[in-house]
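pipeline/complex-builder :: batch 7 item 3
reading input block
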Amino acid sequence: MNSSTLEKSVEKTEKVTAPAASSPAASAAPRRTDRKSVLVGFDLGTNKSCLLIGTPGSNDIAGSKIVPTVVGYVRDGIVDGIIAGNASILYGDEALRNVLHVNLVAPLDRGVIKHRDAARDFLQHVRSLADPSGSAEIRAVVGIPANADEQAREDIRQCATGIFDRILLIPEPFLAALGYRDDSRLGQPGYVDPVTNSLFIDIGGGTSDICLVQGYFPTPDDQISIAFAGDAIDELMQQDIDRVYPNNGLTHLRIREIKENHAYVGSIRKPIDVKVIMGGKAHTLELGEVIGRSCNTLIDKIYPALTTLIGRASSDGIVTLLQNIVITGGGSQIKGIDTVLQKKLTDDSYESPKIRLAGQDYKRYVALGALKAARAARENQWQYLLA
Amino acid sequence: MAEAGRLEIVLRDQISTGFSEEALQEIFQAEQRRVIDALMLAEVLGPLLTEHLAAATSDQARTPAAVARSSQRPAATGRQLAIADLIEGMLMQERTTRGHAA
């Protein structure tokens, strides 16, 4: 799939066709109404969410959106005309652009819903992106952190009730493997299907999820979710910066921006000079050590989990598995993360380990896997959401 | 089937009378199909697991822990893996977990 396919506008969801006779959805029980169906592959992330939109019976992607997972409630007293359309609630980038005029609420914390009302508002926004007409039947496959407990799942179902019509909750690292799978190369000599034998490390904002994918749906023993990821790195950086540069006035968003531009692991790199505005004046902070120390903590958290899961893998395909370790999610953009983890495995005498980065589409793999799952799900596998 | 029947009774008690009978029927029929599919899958998987267990226990090179683990897992086959089958595996895990919790 090329990026131009991914970038087709969401408005194309209006031009849906009837399900193909051979598609799983086509074998459904007779429909209650003539409502068109829209499939949504949805990566509900702590900081950023990605949705891919499709229609039953087609492999085209009708729309692709990445939206910061944030809701902005416009503050009282904002005069007319300041907020476009005098809206009372803003979402994603628009909420962030109007940070002075809204109370920002992040619906999720560490991968699970923390503010239900905000989560419902956000899902309603997602629905409006997937189906501007508001009349379609929405079937969404939603990515959830590995090892998400029943309460976390139920929270998503309840928030989605009345917004999506049918839902399937599937762990994110497994969806990442599905999304990463190149369907056009399946069966070709030399191509190893990542769903058959691989290990995925999905580093998001709230959680780092590590998952063995070995040709069956991962059991709880095959997945480890660590509540340390991008946000935790931000917190460590903020603590360090506050200690070295008191009263710096840097916001969480600015700290995240600095991390996204300069994050690295491995030996400390100096200098990394970052220009910031403090008290209205420009300053240059040297943050090489702060960034390196914070990011290296991620390695300290991930590596034991990685070796634990390798130890649990079936011995039959362990050599192939070691050459199919894939890092995805925002954490895959941390410079050197693949080489540092690979070197640690090599130093610990693992057999020819090879760690790869998922690549430039890392933000979309979970959603892409979710959309593939939505297309393939049998009618009786969808869960109904009764309003 | 009995499980689906019990679910229908419970749901009918909980769902408001304003919900259309047609919609309810569709849901209950889907639930019955789901139970039937699970039973059929169990019938297919049973002999396969038995066969797999026997092969695993005869493999002296493997540790007891590895044998126990592999007996819980359908092995990857040479054919291309169907996503719907993987989802079915996930749903079976969820049902098993909920059953144990209950």
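note: Helices of chain B lie at 2-14, 21-57, 64-72, 83-101.
queue -> next item
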